[in-house]
Specification:
Layout (H helix, E strand, L loop, with lengths): L2 E2 L3 E2 L2 E5 L4 H14 L5 E7 L6 E6 L19 H9 L8 E4 L2 H11 L9 E6 L7 H4 L3 H13 L8 H4 L11 E4 L7 E6 L2 H10 L8 H29 L2 H7 L8 H5 L19 H11 L8 H12 L8 H5 L6 H15 L23 H6 L2
Parallel strand pairs: 4-6, 6-7, 7-8
Antiparallel strand pairs: 1-2, 3-9, 4-5, 8-9
Helix pairs in contact: 2-3, 8-14
Length: about 375
């Protein structure tokens, strides 16, 4: 079993589900309210129009019944949401936040650069089947929600986002508690602690510990290995397709410089981006001069520079959530490209984004022996 800070064993509990699993998990959150383990909860909830979902901060337990354990889409990445709530510091309340693993990892990455405060949060993740592309869901929300629930129960990822189909970290435990449904007995789920906070919740809830989660571990390992094989294959195919500056430029040739991908990205946190500053707003005379020198000039200019700048800035923290690709109005496979680049970048530094809040981002950490192998290979 894992250790918490090398001091105390993490607790594991098997929770009986008296209702449907999703409803039982919402009941668990309500019990947390009743026992004053936390004072508020952030969970997804269907918007009044009924055609999408949003994260809602709940301070009255009766509203938890209106929440949903697994939303079919991700209109807002949870890491971005948590940042907006906690960026200016913590308050005197304890907040439970229910998110997918990629959202959890983004939250942890943002904590390393002072964009979130984890002090009074209880971060709860779950085994994630993926999410649907928003464009697919909006074709018929009611029908697609049913389709999502059926696919999730069968572990069928054919309708999910492209990056969800190759996500090998869909059950990664990064927060304080993880809800394990894979391999669990019928009408039950596992509650797996990953911190002192998680241990405290299990203790205060009076849950009976159950360390027999081999079935969950085996199921997670099997799915992760299958997804990893798919991921390696897809990344290799994509690299052959867009490798080199000419092919990369072609891949981004449809870009209209809307910057939607940047706006929805949870780990693109700069308050003022260079690509939205006055530095890139050229007077008309400059465009005319450049067009005269080159013979022609593309409008809008420098789209490839924008994407390469983003890759340089945030590939080490990319969690492959797919939000950028969902937001692209011209269907550029942005998330798939960033997934490929981030895998290579993070592998270079032996770093996994969101793995631990105590692991510094390589961009801000210095290791004396770092990249020696790269240096030697260039001698």
């Amino acid at each position: 079993m894992n250790k918490t800070d090398g001091k105390k064993e993490n607790k594991i509990a098997a929770v009986s589900a008296k209702k449907e699993i999703g409803k039982s998990i919402l009941d668990f959150l309500k019990q947390g309210f009743e026992k004053e383990i936390f004072n508020e909860v952030i969970i997804p909830m269907k918007v009044p129009a009924g055609d999408s979902f949003a994260y809602v901060l709940i301070r009255d337990k009766k509203f938890i019944d209106d929440g949903i354990f697994l939303s079919p889409v991700m209109p807002v990445q949870g890491g971005k949401m948590v940042s907006s709530v906690t960026r200016l510091g913590s308050n005197d309340t304890t907040t439970a936040v229910l998110m997918r693993p990629c959202e959890m990892r983004a939250t942890i990455e943002l904590s390393k650069v002072g964009q979130t405060n984890l002090e009074n949060l209880v971060l709860i993740s779950m085994d994630c089947p993926g999410v649907m592309p928003i464009s697919d869901y909006l074709k018929d929300p009611e029908k697609q929600l049913k389709k999502f629930n059926e696919s999730a129960s069968k572990l069928d990822d054919s309708i999910m986002r492209p990056v969800c189909k190759i996500c090998d970290k869909s059950s990664m435990i990064a927060g304080d508690l993880h809800i394990g449904t894979l391999g669990a007995k019928k009408d039950s789920f596992y509650l797996i602690s990953n911190s002192e906070k998680g241990n405290s919740v299990i203790e205060k809830m009076g849950l009976k510990e159950d360390n027999s989660i081999n079935s969950w571990k085996e199921k997670v390992k099997k799915i992760s290995e299958e997804k990893k094989e798919k991921r390696i294959k897809k990344n290799k195919e994509l690299k052959n397709k867009i490798g080199g500056i000419d092919k990369l430029t072609e891949a981004f040739s449809k870009c209209i410089n809307c910057h939607n991908c940047m706006s929805v990205c949870p780990v693109c946190f700069c308050r003022l981006c260079y690509f939205e500053s006055d530095k890139v707003k050229q007077p008309s005379d400059d465009y005319l001069a450049r067009a005269k020198n080159k013979g022609s000039i593309r409008f809008l200019p420098d789209t490839t520079l924008f994407h390469m700048g983003r890759m340089t800035h945030m590939s080490l923290s990319c969690v492959s959530c797919g939000a950028c690709e969902d937001a692209c109005p011209v269907d550029i496979p942005v998330a798939q490209i960033f997934c490929m680049i981030s895998d290579e970048t993070q592998k270079l530094f032996d770093y996994t984004s969101g793995r631990s809040p105590d692991e510094p981002i390589p961009l801000v950490a210095y290791k004396e022996e770092e990249l020696v192998e790269m240096e030697d290979s260039n001698d």
